[in-house]
Every structure is written in structure tokens, then in C-alpha cells.
Design a protein that fits this description.
six-stranded mixed beta sheet; alpha/beta
Length: 528
């Protein structure tokens, strides 16, 4: 039986859903919820390594199918703040652990239902179902008590209020009482087996004398040291064999009232689970999985913050980093380099230059990751951040030439950037990485200026990684960022991307390396 059931008692649903029209721990409007059903991974995910991040976040929670929640960005600041407040509440360790305990109980409940579905014998199926409902009732009651104090977010406060009404409803109380009564009655059943040859007789237990203790006392005096235990181990497999099932059928005949009640319980409570609680069970994992994922970075001294979301284009972030790269570096026991950035006044465009493998593309990915994670209400890498509420992220990374589209590399680049510029709005983000590297410097500069003019007119927030120094000072909206090298040894990258004018020196070294024109390369070529 899946975690998400159709509902509980219809009367309860009418009352609760009328009072809590759109009660959700993730969404404040129905449109965002609907989008999840058909959500596909956004196009920007691959280039920004967001696919790797989401895979890592959700890898241990596959039963909940969480990826669609990460594929749908929120459209308004209030919806984002709604999630941010819940994230803040879950920073309380006691609340976090209580929600985790609820999750564990609900997973145990699901295992009971899954086992019930697999079993063949009627009464055994019904007993596993009964156990699952009992776990559900306990989990809901414990969660209700744990959410009674210390909450500040609207999401948790509303859900806490719902839970209190739900556990105090006649239907839930009836379910709890009926479940406990039936469990108690089943636990009181006693019967005896008379085995003779291949025949077994089942009888009610009628206070027959138990000779086990007397036998043990008689033979105790013959015990010499440690002896082998010849007791037969009881079969603990979940499924019964045909003999056990037949014995249980006879027991049911001996206690018809109890087993008829069990039959009715199984049928009447087929859709016992409340829809709101079912959805909470899944939706809360969005928060739990992400917070568990970033905890590994925090243990390694890296900081996360809940960013300020703005519709203005003055943005900043400090001590930030590429989350996907940091994951790999930590696993390899390497240090993570953090960077800062900001835009003020009329500044809109970061143009990033510097040597190959110096952190330029990482900086561009970081910019995109931060904005996307912020747009779904998640804490972002860094100790402080103010980020823009965008409508779409457009990414233009270098591609291998594709013979299937019948376009050369330059033509394909022009086709793709033209498509982006036609779709982009003033609220978009554009991230460009190494564009026009397949043509001459003169042509690349000419084409870059044309693209820059369109971006300038649209007033779009942009990160542009390039080797062309000339565009770093093209207009007042451009900010030059340079991936730095060790001053004493220019071949050593620091991976720090600094806000400063491009001097062209790092570019010259990179070009020489790219075309094997360094002193070392030339000497080797001459020798050969």
C-alpha cells in the first residue's frame, strides 16, 4: 500500500479541507502544486550541475519521488519566504529529530502495508494491516504533541493546528479506540494444540496445567556444565506455511467474534489515512533531505544562509561556492575555495577572464546554482546573500560540434545564443561560457559586441566567461572579474575570482598553453 492514500473518512475530509483549503507544507497556491505532477528537469540543470546536486539530495529518499519538487521554481517572493520560514524552524534540532521520528514510523507503517499486500493468507494480511494502522495512530499523536511549542513558520503553525483538530476528531478517536481494542482482543487469544502423528487438534486454552517448569526442575539435577540447547527455533519468516495457516483458520472458528471484527476492520478502513497527513509525509522530505545533504558541508566548516530575495538587481553573496564541486572535493578530502560577488547601481554583467582551469566556469555555475536554489526556498552556500527573483535561467555553454543538425560550430553557437536572446526578458538570468572560441579573435570580438548590445538593452543579469579582455570594459553595466593566480608563480591557480580589471597577462599565458606555445612546449617541439 503506497504512502499516499486517497483519504480517510469522507466527512472528516469535508470538514478539514473546508477549513484548511490548501494546506501544504510546500505550496501556498494550487498552481505550483499542479506543476509538480508534470515537472521535467529544467534545461539549465546539466550545465549548472544542478542535476548532480538534486541526485545527491534525493538519493536516500527515492521512495518519496522528490525530484519533481526540485524541478519547479516558485514564482513569487511570498511563496519562497513560506519555505524559508520552515527551513528556519527545522534548524531547531529537537523539532528536526521529532519529524525524523515521524518519518521512521511512517516508513515502518508502509513496510507493514507492503508486507500485507504480499501475503497470501487472509488473517495474516489483516493482522499486518492492523499493525500498520496502530503505528500510524501512534506516529500522528506523537507528532501532534511535538509540534505544540516553538514554531514560528506559517506552514508548521497551520499544520500543527490541523493536527490538533484531526486527533481530537470523532473519526480519529474512533480509529484509535477500535485499533487498540482489536489488538488487545487478539493478544488475549489462547489455544492449545494436540498433535498425534499427522493429526493436529486445535482447542481453546482452558487453564490446562503447564508442565514445562516441573520438567525443567526434574532434569536440572542432571545438568553438568554447559549443555547444548535442543529447543526448536520458532519460524520468524513473515509468511506462514500452509499448516500454520490452517491452524489459524481453526483458531478463527474458536473465536468467531474477534476474527469477524478483524475482517470488518480490514474492509472498512481500507482508506484510513488522512490525505493532508499523507501529503505532509512526502512533502516534509523536501526539507529534511536538503538539510541532511548540506549538513556534511557544515561539518567541514562551510557556511549556508537563507538569502534575501529581491526584485531589484543589486545583488551579492559572500563566502559562496559551487555545491556540486564542493561535494566532490570533500569526498576527496580537499579544501573548498569560496568567493564573493556583488552588483550595485547600474551594474548588471559579470565578465570573467583569466587562465584556463582557474575557476571561471565554477564561478559561473555558482552564480546559477545560488539563484536557482534560492528560487525554491533552500538555504544557499555562503554566509550572506541577496539574490534576484528571476523568471528563467538561460545557459550557453560550449558544445561539441553536432553533425546531425547540419550546422558548423560557430553557426550552432550563433543559433543558440540568438534563441536565448529572443526568449529572455528583463527578469531573466543569462550564463555564457566560452562563446565564439572556434573563430578568430577579431570575429569573436565583433560578435561578442553584438550580443553584449542586446543584453545591455534588455538590462539582464549576466555572467559571461571569456578570453576576450576587450569586453570587460565595454559599458557601465559590465563588471570585470578575474580568476587569479599566484603572483610568484603564474602557473599556479588560486581559484579566487576577484573583482578587478583584466590585465590580459593570464589570458596570454592560457592562450600559449592552449596552442602549445609556452617555452617548454616550444623546446620539446624543436627537439622533435
Amino acid at each position: 500500500m503506497p504512502l499516499k492514500a486517497d483519504g480517510f473518512f469522507e466527512r472528516s475530509h469535508f470538514v478539514f479541507l473546508r477549513r484548511f483549503k490548501m494546506l501544504s507544507i510546500l505550496f501556498t497556491n494550487e498552481n505550483d502544486r499542479i506543476k509538480v505532477k508534470n515537472a521535467q528537469m529544467p534545461e539549465c540543470f546539466g550545465d549548472l550541475y544542478l542535476d548532480q546536486i538534486v541526485n545527491s539530495v534525493t538519493s536516500k529518499k527515492e521512495v518519496y519521488n522528490l525530484k519533481p519538487y526540485f524541478y519547479v521554481k516558485l514564482e513569487d517572493i511570498d511563496s519562497i519566504k513560506y519555505r524559508q520560514e520552515i527551513m528556519r524552524d527545522l534548524e531547531n534540532e529537537e523539532l528536526f529529530e521529532n519529524v525524523k521520528k515521524f518519518e521512521d514510523k511512517m516508513l515502518t507503517m508502509k513496510k507493514c502495508f507492503d508486507q500485507s499486500d504480499k501475503l497470501s493468507y487472509k488473517y495474516q494480511k489483516e493482522k499486518w494491516f492492523l499493525d500498520g494502522v496502530e503505528i500510524y495512530c501512534d506516529a500522528v499523536q506523537e507528532l501532534t504533541e511535538s509540534l505544540s511549542v516553538g514554531l514560528k513558520s506559517k506552514g508548521f503553525l497551520d499544520f500543527s493546528e490541523f493536527l490538533k483538530d484531526y486527533v481530537n476528531s470523532d473519526d480519529f478517536k474512533s480509529l484509535v479506540i477500535h485499533t487498540k481494542k482489536l489488538k488487545d482482543e487478539l493478544s488475549q487469544i489462547r489455544y492449545t494444540l494436540f498433535v498425534k502423528g499427522s493429526m493436529i487438534k486445535v482447542r481453546r486454552y482452558d487453564s490446562q496445567k503447564n508442565y514445562s517448569q516441573e520438567i525443567e526442575e526434574i532434569f536440572e539435577k542432571f545438568r553438568q556444565g554447559t549443555v547444548k540447547n535442543y529447543s526448536v527455533k520458532f519460524n520468524e519468516l513473515p509468511d506462514m506455511n500452509h499448516i500454520e495457516a490452517k491452524i489459524l483458520d481453526f483458531v478463527a472458528i474458536l473465536y468467531p467474534d474477534i476474527f469477524e471484527e478483524l475482517d470488518g476492520y480490514y474492509v472498512n478502513n481500507a482508506n484510513f489515512m488522512n490525505k493532508v497527513i499523507s501529503e505532509f509525509t512526502r512533502e516534509i522530505q523536501f526539507y529534511i533531505s536538503y538539510l541532511e545533504y548540506i549538513s556534511q558541508f557544515k561539518r567541514n566548516g562551510l557556511e549556508f544562509c537563507i538569502p534575501q530575495i529581491t526584485q531589484e538587481k543589486e545583488i551579492y553573496a559572500s563566502s559562496t561556492f559551487d555545491l556540486a564541486l564542493a561535494d566532490k572535493l570533500i569526498n576527496d578530502q580537499k579544501s573548498v575555495v569560496t568567493n564573493d560577488f556583488y552588483l550595485k547601481d547600474q551594474e548588471r554583467i559579470f565578465v570573467v577572464t583569466g587562465p584556463n582551469q582557474g575557476g571561471k566556469t565554477t564561478f559561473a555555475r555558482t552564480f546559477g546554482q545560488l539563484h536557482y536554489l534560492a528560487s525554491i526556498g533552500c538555504p544557499v552556500p555562503g554566509n550572506e546573500a541577496k539574490l534576484f527573483l528571476f523568471d528563467q535561467i538561460f545557459v550557453h555553454f560550449e558544445r561539441e560540434e553536432n553533425i546531425n543538425n547540419l550546422r558548423g560550430k560557430l553557426e550552432d553557437e550563433l543559433f543558440r545564443i540568438n534563441l536565448i536572446l529572443k526568449k529572455a526578458t528583463q527578469k531573466s538570468l543569462i550564463i555564457i561560457n566560452e562563446m565564439f572560441s572556434s573563430t578568430t579573435l577579431e570575429d569573436a570580438l565583433f560578435l561578442s559586441k553584438k550580443v553584449m548590445d542586446v543584453i545591455y538593452d534588455l538590462d539582464i543579469l549576466t555572467v559571461w566567461v571569456t578570453f576576450i579582455d576587450e569586453i570587460t570594459s565595454m559599458n557601465e553595466k559590465v563588471v570585470s572579474m578575474v580568476s587569479s593566480v599566484d603572483p610568484d608563480n603564474p602557473s599556479v591557480r588560486t581559484y579566487k575570482v576577484l573583482r578587478k580589471p583584466s590585465d590580459g597577462l593570464s589570458y596570454a599565458i592560457s592562450v600559449a598553453e592552449k596552442y602549445h606555445l609556452t617555452y617548454k612546449s616550444l623546446k620539446e617541439r624543436i627537439k622533435s
